[in-house]
Amino acid sequence: MLKKLHIQNYAIIDEIDIQFSNKLNIITGETGAGKSILMGALSLILGERADTSALKVNDKKCVIEGFFSIDDKPAIKQFLKDNELDIEEELVVRREIAVSGKSRAFVNDTPTTVQQLKELASLLVDLHRQFDTLELGDEDFQREVIDALANNLDLVQTYQTQYRQWLQATKTLQELQAQKAAFNKELDYHQFLYDELEEVSLQENELEDLDAELNLLSNSEGIKTALTKTYFDLKESEQPIVISLKQLINQLNNYASYHHDLPDVIKRLQSTHIELQDIAEEVERINDAIHFDEKRIEFINERLAVGYKLLKKHGVKSTAEILTIQAELRNKLQAVLNIDDAILQKEKAVAQLLQQAIKTAETLAAKRLQQVAPLEKNVNHLLHQVGMPNARLKVQIKDSALNLYGKNEIELLFDANKSNRFEPIRKVASGGELSRLMLCIKSLVAKSMDLPTMIFDEIDSGISGEAAKQVGAIMKDLATNRQIICITHQPQIAGKANAHYFVYKEIKGEAVKTNIRLLSNDERITAIAQMLSGEKPTAAALENAREMVMN
Length: 551
Description:
The structure is a single chain. The protein has 17 helices and 15 strands. It is an alpha/beta fold. It has two domains: 2-151 and 416-519, Rossmann fold; 177-338, no CATH class. The strands form three sheets. The protein has a six-stranded antiparallel sheet, covered by helices on one side. A hairpin with a 2-residue loop joins β1 and β2 (13-19). The longest helix has 67 residues, at 319-385. It is elongated and about 160 Å long. 28% of the residues are buried.
């Protein structure tokens, strides 16, 4: 509920505060007095675009604040929690427009975005202006009316979750299918490359090892000659080095006790003797292992030729790189097999999600159809009540392809003259008819769900007399369980007010400013009498106004 509206330096408003009642609040005043300015200011804290032309004094910022009671609004408290905004007993929404034109929004003194402000506003206030009747021709609005009456909000959210999951799964399936098509396009070529590498079957470091072995075999004769001579000189010549070294050790041993450094020298010679013996044996082993093998050389050359050809073909330089390519090709070929399984599983998931969405959409459709007859009956009754006895509303629900809102196309059709020629509302209803029709529909929707504070800005355009009286009665009935704020020119509606505010212009110095005040009972009677008969109301008008207020 909007408890208070504070406006400072907006248009021709210097500074005003309006305390609203929790029932039916009526705002009246002469044309041009500033009633629409109030709505303009209010729309700013509901997230509308700000404009520096709204500044009354160009060197002073504009401030609009709305004070709301949210005790019985869990959805609002949840919004504040979700957006990390302070939850207090009183919700204060503030909009500031700086002299530079920069706009800022605050909720409980915490800066917020305009988008957040709009989302919060939708939970706080339903603002209906005269031109908003165009909504009636909008398919989304018409569907929302039916869903509100059917209490479909949770079901719609469930369905939309299922529908989006189905869309996402379908997209993933299509991506897998496209990926498979791309795989298949290159499958034969990848298979050929892999088979070629698999046939050669290179082992780790094979080409490098074969290259080293080829160098060894190609030089085997020279290597064996060098090794044979080395072994011969160490152990088998006329004066073998190993034997000569042994003799030297024996000679020195005879004199080891005569010089303190000799034992160390002898020990080193003994170590050298042992090492040379080991070297001689190792040389012999290596020599015995080396054999010139022409067939082996031929095999290696052929193997290297195949291997180097593959390296050149794939643009790499080592066995490790070619083995990496072989592994990648194996993975690509395996992916073709895996993707078939993935596609099969995703097809099952898509089918299951589609069936869930269809089932929920059918439940939605059934609940919507149940509302057709009651909505037509109730709206047509209210239309008769507001002075449109020949007008009739017809709800048309057709099956459609599955979409974000189910499987229905919903359209409200209208016949203003009992002609049995129902046409879409946007094509045949006049402005006044649209206004009254919107009021009738909103009054029904408000009873089916917890609509926020409802504000009507001259929705009574184009009506008068008994019709205006009945519009007032509908608003009075709506105000039983919610706050209604209505700007009107109709005395019949003003007479229903729980709180009647009068907007007026006054001159202070050389400036004209807009102000507003809450009327007393006697002032209300006078204001309504003036609405009936002019600036100087007649006695009959005063009596008529008194009767309206009393009733």
